[in-house]
Structure formats: structure tokens, C-alpha cells
């Protein structure tokens, strides 16, 4: 049985925060990070709540790649506060931290028979993880990144407001934009792909190719910024339904160990993963279709694969993203000495199941060596 879920209502554009002026809510728990507080981005929301006399409590102790400790601390505050609405504001890290708090708190409350689900609103400030429309959250524990998946974590409302991404510096625009591209390409070649997800994925891929480098070079460009925010969301809907692949499994394992930005890791890994997966005939055809959708005219699948991999490399280089894990600054000794455990994590990551190509440990070892 096929299932295509498009749950959150998506409010977008300049007036999208107006939904907060009319919703019936009384007590809001808001999860964000210190940057959003310092940049006063959070005030755009709290000012509206204040003007309505709605109580709000802010939890901002979330760092990039949220840890189990940050989540447990947040859960204690969330439970004690007992809100009727939860708002996650930030990049993937605060949104995922908030989702994880909801996931674990719900499990405990359900077991105790006290279940009352607050409204959940996600407001992304990067373009981005698409976390505002996915049922996934990624939690980091010591040297592991663990993806969780549960429809309980799907927000009820996503708010895409272009003002919230105005303060993004170029390097984060580059990293998070390449994350969008990875989501869309992995969804397009995944084992659970379908016409719904393919259409959204291709739309997101075309937008990233058309607008990301210009947005990196000139963050003031409004049309590009708005379109990338929507592309991020479309890629999120696509991969929430179709799944991802080993690009993300590798990025999860390396991100947890070496603490490098998620999107940057994805960008560096992507061209070689595309060549690796193209050993699967279907995947090679799908990569060629992507190249064709981007306006290239390959004569055969193998040429389409090469064109796509090269086009991605060129865009990454234009945005000063390094071309290898060595250039990214991952220490050689640790990388090679921990490789067996990296491969264990890649094999066990939930994203691996949707990857188009099956592989042996030796093949994965070769890919990881090539990536360095
Ligand atoms: N849930 C999912 O479906 C999903 C998908 C992909 C990645 N992820 C996870 O999301 C996390 C990465 O999220 P991310 O890439 O959005 O970055 P992030 O949330 O980690 O933020 C990166 C940095 O950008 C800053 N920032 C965010 N918005 C800003 C703005 N508008 N202006 C200025 N600075 C801003 C943050 O404060 C932070 O310092 C990783 O942990 C990754 O594993 C989740
Ligand atoms: Fe991602």
C-alpha cells in the first residue's frame, strides 16, 4: 500500500506569522538556540505572543547537532511547564531537539495515561533540513548520530517566513543549500521513490541549481532567498516520504565523530556517492534524468552521471566548500583507525535501507577511502 503524507499546514511568505495572531493557544514553550536569541529573531514571535497576553517560556540551550543531554534537560522544562503549544524556531538543530523532546515526552506521558498532545509549530531559519515538514529528527550521542522517525514528530503547522532567513551568513547558506540538494537527489533515486516525491524532488533540485550560488554571493537577493526556502520544504516533503540514502548515513557517522556541518559533509560526499550508486542501473538512469531536467543532454546514462557529479562539484567549489574530507580538516589517523566503526554505523543507519545500491563492507571501505 502506498502512503504519501503531507501533514503540516504550510504558511509561507511575508505575512505568514499572522497565523500566530489567530490561533487558540494559551501557553507556549519555544525551543531555539542562543544565536536566535542574540540576533533577536526570536522576538518576532514573542512580540506577537506578548501582544496577545500569551505566556511563553524559551528554552535556548541547543547547540548545532543537538545532544541527548540537551534534549533531556529540555524535556524536564517542557514537562514542568505543560504548554498547549510548542514552537521550534531555528535551523535543523533546534527543530530536531524540539521534535526529540516531543517524541520522548509523549512516550512517557502515553505510558502514564496522561496524553494530551500540544499543537506543534516549526519555524525554520535555514534552507535547510526541511525538518519543519518531516517526521525525522537526528539526535547526537557521544560518537553517534541517531535518526528517529515517528509521525508524532510531524509538526501541525510549518511557517516559512523569508524574514527569518535574512540574517544567514553565506557559509551557512552554502552548507544548508547543499543539504537541500542532497535530500532531493537521494529522494529521487531512493527505493521508495514515487511520482509525488519525484516531482517535488526535481522542483527542489532545479531551484537549488538556479538560485543557490547567487544567494551565496548576494544574500540580499529576495526572490532567490524565498525560492530556496520553499525548495528546502519541498525536498523535506519528498524525503520524508521516499527516504534518503547512504550520503546521509555517511554524513551522520562522520558528523557525530568529527563535528563538521551536516550540509558541508553532504556536499563533499555527494559526487562520489552518485558515482558509487550509479553501479546500479536504475540509479544511473535516474541520475541521468536529473541531469536532463537541469538542461544537459547526455547521450547515455553513464555520461549523465558524470555530468551531474561534475556540476555539483563545480557549484560546491564556487561556494568555497572543500573538495575532500582531508581538505575539510578531518584528521587522517583518526579517520582511518575508526573506519570499521564508521562502516558499522553506516550499515545500521535507517537511511541506508532506502539506498538504491546494496554494498559490501569492502566496497564501502573503498568509497570512504576515495572520499578522503
Ligand atoms: N530532521 C531532519 O529531517 C533533518 C534533515 C537533515 C539534517 N538534520 C539535522 O539538522 C542539523 C543541521 O541543521 P541546519 O543545517 O539547519 O543547521 P543548525 O540548526 O545546526 O544551525 C547552524 C548554525 O546556523 C545558525 N543559524 C541558523 N539560522 C540562522 C539565521 N537565520 N541567521 C543566522 N544564523 C543562523 C545557528 O545558530 C547555528 O550556529 C544537523 O544536526 C542534521 O543532522 C535533520
Ligand atoms: Fe540532511
Q: In terms of per-residue confidence, which ranges show pLDDT below 50 for 5 or more consecutive residues?
A: none
Summing up helix and strand content along with how strands pair, one would put the structural category as: alpha/beta
Looking at CATH, which topology of the largest domain would you report? Answer: Dehydroquinate synthase-like, alpha domain
CATH architecture of the largest domain: Up-down Bundle
Distinct ligands: nicotinamide-adenine-dinucleotide, fe (ii) ion
Helical amount among residues, as a percent range? 40-55%
**Domains counted in the coordinates: how many?**
2
Corresponding CATH superfamily of the largest domain: Dehydroquinate synthase-like - alpha domain
Q: Could you give the order of the helices and strands?
A: EHEHHEHEHEEEEHHHHHHHHHH
CATH class of the largest domain: Mainly Alpha
**Mean pLDDT, all residues:** 96
Strand order of the largest sheet: 1-8-5-4-2-3
Rg from Cα: 20 Å
Q: Number of helical segments?
A: 15
Strand percentage: 5-15%
Straight-line distance between termini = 41 Å
Major sheet attributes:
6 strands, parallel
According to DSSP, the number of beta strands is: 8
Shape: globular
Family: Belongs to the iron-containing alcohol dehydrogenase family.
Keywords: Oxidoreductase
Pfam family, one: Fe-ADH
GO molecular function, one term: metal ion binding
Amino acid at each position: 500500500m502506498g502512503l504519501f503524507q503531507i501533514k503540516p499546514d504550510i504558511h509561507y511568505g511575508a505575512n505568514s506569522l499572522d497565523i500566530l495572531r489567530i490561533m487558540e493557544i494559551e501557553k507556549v514553550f519555544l525551543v531555539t538556540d542562543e544565536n536566535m536569541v542574540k540576533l533577536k529573531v526570536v522576538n518576532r514571535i514573542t512580540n506577537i505572543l506578548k501582544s496577545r497576553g500569551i505566556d511563553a517560556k524559551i528554552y535556548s540551550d541547543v547547540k548545532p547537532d543537538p545532544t541527548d543531554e540537551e534534549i533531556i534537560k529540555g524535556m524536564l522544562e517542557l514537562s514542568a511547564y505543560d504548554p498547549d503549544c510548542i514552537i521550534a524556531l531555528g535551523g535543523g538543530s533546534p527543530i530536531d531537539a524540539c521534535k526529540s523532546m516531543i517524541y520522548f515526552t509523549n512516550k512517557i506521558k502515553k505510558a502514564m495515561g496522561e496524553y494530551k498532545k500540544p499543537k506543534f509549530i516549526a519555524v525554520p531559519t535555514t534552507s535547510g533540513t526541511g525538518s519543519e515538514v518531516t517526521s525525522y529528527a537526528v539526535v547526537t550521542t557521544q560518537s553517534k548520530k541517531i535518526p528517529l522517525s515517528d509521525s508524532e514528530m510531524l509538526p501541525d503547522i510549518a511557517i516559512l517566513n523569508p524574514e527569518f532567513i535574512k540574517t544567514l551568513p553565506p557559509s551557512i547558506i552554502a552548507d544548508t543549500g547543499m543539504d537541500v540538494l542532497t535530500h532531493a537527489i537521494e529522494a529521487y533515486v531512493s527505493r521508495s521513490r514515487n511520482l509525488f516525491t519525484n516531482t517535488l524532488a526535481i522542483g527542489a533540485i532545479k531551484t537549488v541549481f538556479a538560485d543557490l550560488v547567487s544567494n551565496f554571493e548576494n544574500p540580499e537577493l529576495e526572490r532567490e532567498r524565498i525560492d530556496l526556502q520553499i525548495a528546502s520544504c519541498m525536498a523535506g516533503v519528498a524525503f520524508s516520504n521516499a527516504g534518503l540514502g547512504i550520503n546521509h548515513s555517511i554524513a551522520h557517522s562522520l558528523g557525530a565523530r568529527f563535528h563538521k556541518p551536516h550540509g558541508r559533509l553532504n556536499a563533499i560526499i555527494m559526487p562520489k556517492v552518485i558515482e558509487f550508486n550509479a553501479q546500479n542501473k536504475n540509479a544511473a538512469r535516474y541520475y541521468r534524468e536529473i541531469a536532463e531536467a537541469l538542461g544537459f543532454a547526455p547521450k547515455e546514462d553513464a555520461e549523465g552521471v558524470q555530468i551531474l557529479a561534475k556540476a555539483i562539484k563545480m557549484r560546491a567549489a564556487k561556494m568555497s566548500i572543500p573538495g575532500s574530507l582531508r581538505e575539510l580538516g578531518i584528521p587522517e589517523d583518526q579517520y582511518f583507525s575508526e573506519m570499521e566503526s564508521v562502516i558499522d554505523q553506516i550499515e545500521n543507519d535507517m537511511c541506508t535501507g532506502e539506498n538504491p545500491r546494496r554494498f559490501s563492507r569492502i566496497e564501502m571501505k573503498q568509497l570512504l577511502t576515495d572520499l578522503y
